[in-house]
Amino acid sequence: MLFQSARDMIGHTPLVRLALDVPEGTEVYAKLELANPFAMKDRVAKSVVEEARRIGALEPGAPIVESSSGTLALGVALVGRSLGHPVHIVTDPRIDPVTLAKLRCLDAHVHIVRSMTGQGWQSARLERLAELMRDLPGAFWPRQYTNPDNPRAYRPLAQELIDDLGTVDVLVGAVGSGGSLCGSTRELRKTFPSLRSVGVDCVGSALFDQPDSPGRLQSGLGNSLSPNNLDRDVIDEVHWLNDHEAFAATRALVREQGIFAGNTSGSVYRVLTEVAARATPGSRIVGIFPDRGDRYIDTVYSDEYWDEHRVTDLPLATEPRPVEYGTAVTQWSRATLPRAGKAGKFLIFIESNTTGTGMEALRTARELGLRPVLITGRPERYAGLEETGSEIVVCDTNSPAELRTVIQERFPRQDIAGLTTTSDFYVPTTAELTEWLDLPGNSADAVAACRNKDVTRGVLWAAGIGQPNYAVVKDVDEVAKAVAEVGLPCVVKPSDDSGSNNVRLCIDVDEARDMASRILAVRTNVRGQPTARTVLVEEFVQGDEYSVETFTHDGVTTCVGVTAKSVTAGPYFVETGHVFPAPLPAGAASELAETVITALGAVGWRSGAVHTEVKLTASGPRVLEINPRLAGGMIPELIRQAIGSDLLEQQLRAATGLPVDLTATRHGHAVIRFLLPDRAGVLSGVEGVEAASATPGVTKVAVTVRPGTAVKRAENAYGRIGYIIAAGDTPAMVTRTLDAARDRIRIRVDDESPDGENPGARTVR
Questions:
Q1: Residue 276 pLDDT > 90, yes or no?
Q2: How many CB atoms lie within 10 A of CB 757?
Q3: Which residue, 153, 539, 622, 635, is most buried by CB atoms nearer than 10 A?
Q4: Which residues of 189-336 form beta strands (DSSP E)?
Q5: Is-contact 543 588, C-beta < 8 A?
């Protein structure tokens, strides 16, 4: 295999079957991560540095600063220098001369702290690192203990095991930062859900609730701190070995298997032998061997070092003592880790929608026993936020680097149940973050294929799914050609906005050109995010409009129901009301559902609610948009009132890995009608709300705009000022109820004169 650089050699490490006395049919393998250019943590360095460059957290030529006494230092030096970054490594006197020599040959700046502080060498190194970060403008700190790009680095390792072995039953790995074992385990369990994960720690390490002993001799595993990347919930069993047992096992590994490795590999080897001895016959067991033995010549492999540190004074057990988790140990012992449920864990929301389900989602999370957190750039945007009892974290949610830093520093991975959003604009961000953290959710590619409507069109066209004819425009000069291809009248719209904003029916080329010019002039959306500045010119499809509400869980997509939509005729398409479920023949509803489920398969959707807008034409369904989220327009509330399914709750359950139940508990209908001003002015009030609310069958009347607010004739969903919801047994019954309630509502809009005075008023029935 030809490599362009040493950085390209990282990964694709050998897998060796070990010669052990094990039950018949049992296979035990060593994944030789020590065969990377320097060691296993080369993977981490490559993952962290390349991702930091991609999201802008590491600028070209900026310095990299990391705390490490071992192989991560070498990986960062290798990767950082190969990409043109000066590298500063903070370490302590335990660093071995071989590693120190290699770092200096790689031109790394090595800073050695001389004494421990409050929490041992680790805290001393972090204090020095903080000083360097202050002194080096623009410096990037990989933060191996908190950065999810550490465990993420081991997804390829897991895939290599799958490719090489086909199946894996047990994975054994040393634990230091929490990255390798947790990252590999999570990835393997996507293919092998029953995989057993066994962690290897050292006596005197605080990682698994043992008393901390900073004087322990082992390196490469154990810790005096609890890293945010350590997720104990994915590990089934933990073993502790003292220094004598670990060093002896490392020497045994060379003698018995011919593998010259460090004490992390030796400890894993010792645990592998015991796990294999009591494994179910036919099991396939893999141990991760992190580093080579050259760093340990003067310690593990030195009789003088053993004598100087009285290594043989420690016990040397030949098998582990089973103990209850939490029992203090001094020699080889093992314990089963307790399992924590989802209760009390964080459900993190990245922004929210400002009306409808936004604040309700936060309250629902609390009702599920979760701890809701809203990360937002502007908390004042959300009315009623304080009443939800949610934790509020303020940061720039449009900055991937800042958002990631806040999450990784504030929330240990073990304490996060899930991450989600109720805002259209942050669904792509959420997908990237759930992938980064390996939480339940959809791939960023699947979300992009829905959220970016030009991408949606391409995917559906390739899959042969019915949709409008279309053309993609990035310059006004392309409009005439696009209109000629699509025909008139045509619909002109942005590829990445929401709420039917800037969507217009155009009857000639001039209108289409003007609308495209208007869209292309918008550089940021209402949330301050850069727009795609891409226009779709689409065929105006004749037919009744519906939305298909689906939910995907465990790889199965269920059609929850079809919503009938009332929309203004144009030139702007404003939804004036919905009926759920739509009064449709069974065959038509099934045809709509089948089309949408096929479309979701084409985009690669795998989890949660989707709101797909469709027109039913004489030639069959035509997909208008796939919205990768719960429906807006209070449709989830209509569904709840009509059939008893709470999709908002189920969406939060799916986001946290809780069981999902889509069972309908009743068979009614619900209707919503939106309150819309018919002209521009200042809203002076909405009368008749109490009377409308008292109408039998009406379940809710809401006014969402305060008096004194400037309003105009609605051009999109943002022009609504309120709504009425009614529920009952039949569509005709609830429609009559809604008509009666709407007749009692009076919307008062005052004319606004140029000088700001209001000379007159008009009432809208």
A1: yes
A2: 9
A3: 153
A4: 196-202, 237-241, 284-289, 321-322, 333-336
A5: no
**Cα 666 from chain centroid (whole Å):** 34
Q: What is the pLDDT of residues 656-704, one digit of tens each?
A: 999 999 999 999 999 999 999 988 999 999 999 999 999 999 999 999 8
- What would the pLDDT profile of 130-160 be if each residue is shown by its tens digit? 999 999 999 999 999 999 999 999 999 999 9
Alpha-carbon gap, residue 168 to 162, rounded angstroms: 7
CA nearest to 267, candidates 286, 244, 294, 249: 249
Tokens linked to 703: 């006014």
Query: Dihedral, CA atoms, 452, 401, 57, 441, nearest 10 degrees?
Result: -60
CB 104 within 8 A of CB 89: no
Instruction: Note whether 347 and 417 are within 8 A (CB).
Output: yes
Position 580, amino acid: F
DSSP string, 463-512: HT-----EEEESSGGGHHHHHHHH-SSEEEEESS--TTTT-EEESSHHHH
Q: Which of 210, 225, 221, 277 is closest to 245 using CA atoms? A: 221
Strand order through the sheet with 746-750:
710-711, 681-687, 746-750, 761-764
Tell me which DSSP letter residue 296 carries: G
CB 489 within 8 A of CB 558: no
Tally of residues, the chain: 765
Please answer whether residues 279 and 291 qualify as being in contact, where contact means their C-beta atoms are separated by less than 8 angstroms.
Answer: no
Confidence of residue 754 (pLDDT cuts 50, 70, 90): very low
| Tokens 């020590």 -> residue | 34
Span 30-77, pLDDT tens digits = 999 999 999 999 999 999 999 999 999 999 999 999 988 788 999 999
**pLDDT on residue 757:** 47
Write a three-state SS string for 516-554: HHHHHCCCECCCCCECCCCEEEEECCCCEEEEEEEEEEC
Helices in 318-417 by DSSP H: which ranges? 358-367, 400-410
Beta strands in 618-729 (DSSP E): 620-627, 669-675, 681-687, 698-703, 710-711, 722-728
Cα distance between residue 2 and residue 67, in whole Å: 32
Q: Are strands 346-350 and 371-376 parallel, antiparallel or unpaired?
A: parallel
What is the number of helices (H) and of strands (E) in the chain? 22, 31
* SS3 state of residue 351: coil
243-257 and 263-277 are packed helices; what angle lies between their axes, rounded to 10 degrees? 80
Element (H, E) at 576: strand 575-580
Contact between 220 and 264 (Cβ < 8 Å): yes
Conformation bin of residue 333: beta by default, left when phi > 0, alpha when psi is -120 to 50: beta
CA distance 435 to 398: 17
Return d(Cα 647, Cα 625) in angstroms, integer: 20
Q: Residue 685 contacts by C-beta under 8 Å, 6 or more apart in sequence?
A: 707, 748
Cα distance between residue 219 and residue 202, in whole Å: 9
Please identify which residue in the block is written with the tokens 């203090």. 328
What are 220's two structure tokens? 């490469």
Beta bridge partners of 685: 748
Backbone angles phi, psi at 240, to 5 degrees: -115, 135
Determine the Cα–Cα distance for residues 44 and 37; give it in Å rounded to an integer: 13
Kindly give the interhelix angle for 427-437 and 444-451, rounded to the nearest 10 degrees.
170
> Which strands, in side-by-side order, build the sheet including 416-420?
391-394, 371-376, 346-350, 416-420
pLDDT tens track for 510-565: 999 999 999 999 999 999 999 999 999 999 999 999 999 999 998 899 999 999 99
